[in-house]
Design a protein that fits this description.
13 strands, 13-stranded antiparallel beta sheet, mainly beta, Porin
Amino acid sequence: MIKRPLPLTLEDRTSSITNTDFDDMYDRVFFHVERQPGRTTTKIYEMNIRASRHRSTLPLGRDPIIHLDFQEDESLGTVSFFKPPFTGSIPMARYLKKTSFFGTSLSRKFMGSDGREYKWGYRTFTGQEWSCTTMDNILVAHYDLKHPNIRTYDVSGNNLIIYEAFAHMCAEFVASFLIMRHIAQYNL
């Protein structure tokens, strides 16, 4: 029997780009995404425990690891990282660049903190809503929507899958993925 590492399977609890949780089904990593009403900053927190009905009523008691600061009109602003290996701010349009000058806005690339270039694409592979690959077209992450005929209970059924060899980039994939979904939602 061949043992292969399990990918991170982050369940997207609400499927909202401003208020959700990404919880690994094997309890290895947890992220909370939050934007206060009337604000333009979406904050990403790394959590110690899985989301629950009770956690959303308690104060977070920690600092966010990433800020996604959008403009008042929801156009792209800046992304700020507060956890090593990369700390600092960069304009989102420079962080997530279109893959070609005349290409679609839903195909963008970014330089990861590991020095590799990655690209997100919308519906580039069958069965995947969003796909992230290296520039050599190696699949590293993808977002899958729940099939409409499958019942779910108290969850969205949508998952962000990150392959084990790229788990160290998990927070950056979540941040870049949320920006890509924002671009799609606001037709930027």
